[in-house]
Task: inverse folding
């Protein structure tokens, strides 16, 4: 079923008056992810902006159980929860490991790869604000080429982003999907779908960060949308190996063109040091990746629910 | 405080709104909705609610009238930016007459 703004659940599991910055896209994404997961959910969260959102002991701004864990251990702790729930015979609870890009692409990748190789029955969600934001914005392996961070202060980052969803897809887990906080309905549908699949499910979510990327908080949704429209972020899902562009990216593919990467870059202060050569290189990277995706696109499976006898 | 029956968990937080205090105090400008322009309010029929969808703070209700919880709204301006009817204006706190 296709969701609409009116069909989303009313209940909020993420409560107002939390500690995230004004205009933080993690708030948008987290609200709708928790709506899709529902109350029979346990999350494990390592040190990150999501810990900040969850709040300081003895109060939390989130209405579902959360286990705070050390920075590298998100997937290991989540796998432990899955095993523990099985041992005491509790069924119907979704375990979700939920970490940032630093906590996933860099320090958490070993535990995550191990859990995925065992096809651990959990969901792992990585929200990507493209740096270590909670500690002031250091470079991560998901920081894009040319972006200035506190650890790439002069020339900007010299490397491209690590392709984490592709690494997870290489584990041949049942479900891998990418989403963006700027497209909450697409995000909601993917999380709901992931909830009802067995085995390891990996979701990657692009989450623009106003103070880290240096754009005004009011533009959070716009920047996330531009990331998709320029192909910096591509929305897709890989279900049992079948790759399919989804949502806005599927529409862009049908229309046939992406917007130039420059339009995305020039709105963000973090790209203030990017060179002309780096912009060209970024554009080539985006274009070749987009061509790969278009070539992999499998036809949309028929939706039998809409057919009538 | 929550009571923990398993005996193995020593400290647990309790959920509450306003964990970070009255975050409305962070605002330098306030979103004000014009009921003459807001689509569901004008038609008195549920529709749109994109401001509700995109509010990072869960500070807007999905109902008629559409209302903003100014105790916690941080004034980011996303709702005003995304409203398709231009029904939300950000007014600087110092120019605000209604409260
Ligand atoms: C082992 C270890 N090293 C470093 C830290 C300090 N630290 C806490 S949060 C954080 C950054 C997290 O970055 P990311 O996972 O991308 O999440 P974000 O803050 O960007 O949401 C760091 C370096 C830590 N808590 N533990
Ligand atoms: S630093 Fe960025 S990701 Fe972290 S709370 Fe602030 S806006 Fe959100
Ligand atoms: S986005 Fe604008 S038109 Fe839509 S419900 Fe909100 S205020 Fe009304
Ligand atoms: S200004 Fe931001 S926090 Fe306030 S109601 Fe609008 S979207 Fe929500
Ligand atoms: Mg990060």
Result:
């Amino acid at each position: 079923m296709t969701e609409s703004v009116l069909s989303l659940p009313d209940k909020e599991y993420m409560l107002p008056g939390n500690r995230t910055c004004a205009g933080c896209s993690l708030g948008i994404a987290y609200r709708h992810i928790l709506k899709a997961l529902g109350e029979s959910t346990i999350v494990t969260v390592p040190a990150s902006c999501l810990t900040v959102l969850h709040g300081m002991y003895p109060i939390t701004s989130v209405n579902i159980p959360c286990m705070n864990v050390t920075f590298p251990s998100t997937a290991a702790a989540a796998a432990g929860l899955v095993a523990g729930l099985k041992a005491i015979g509790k069924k119907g609870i979704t375990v979700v490991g939920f970490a940032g890009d630093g906590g996933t692409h860099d320090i958490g990748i070993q535990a995550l790869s191990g859990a995925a190789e065992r096809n651990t029955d959990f969901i792992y969600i990585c929200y990507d604000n493209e740096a270590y934001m909670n500690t002031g914005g250091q470079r991560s392996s998901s920081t894009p080429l040319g972006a200035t961070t506190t650890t790439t202060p002069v020339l900007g980052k010299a490397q491209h982003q690590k392709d984490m969803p592709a690494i997870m897809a290489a584990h041949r887990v049942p479900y891998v999907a990418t989403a963006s906080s700027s497209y909450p309905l697409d995000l909601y549908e993917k999380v709901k779908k992931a909830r009802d699949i067995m085995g390891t499910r990996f979701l990657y979510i692009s989450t623009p960060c106003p103070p880290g990327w240096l754009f005004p908080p009011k533009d959070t949704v716009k920047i996330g949308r531009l990331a998709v429209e320029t192909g910096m972020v591509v929305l897709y899902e890989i279900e049992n190996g079948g790759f399919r562009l989804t949502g806005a990216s599927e529409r862009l593919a049908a229309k046939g063109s992406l917007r130039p990467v420059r339009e995305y870059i020039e709105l963000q202060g973090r790209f203030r040091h990017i060179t002309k050569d780096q912009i060209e290189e970024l554009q080539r990277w985006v274009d070749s990746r987009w061509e790969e995706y278009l070539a992999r696109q499998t036809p949309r499976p028929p939706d039998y629910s809409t057919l009538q006898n | 405080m929550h009571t923990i029956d398993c005996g193995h968990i020593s400290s647990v937080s309790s959920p509450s709104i306003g964990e970070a205090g009255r975050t409305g105090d962070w605002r330098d400008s306030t979103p004000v909705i014009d009921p003459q322009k807001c689509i569901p309010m004008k038609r008195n029929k549920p529709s749109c609610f994109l401001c509700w969808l995109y509010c990072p703070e869960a500070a807007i209700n999905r109902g008629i009238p559409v209302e903003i919880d100014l105790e916690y709204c941080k004034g980011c301006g996303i709702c005003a930016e995304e409203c398709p009817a231009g029904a939300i204006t950000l007014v600087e706190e110092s120019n605000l007459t209604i409260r």
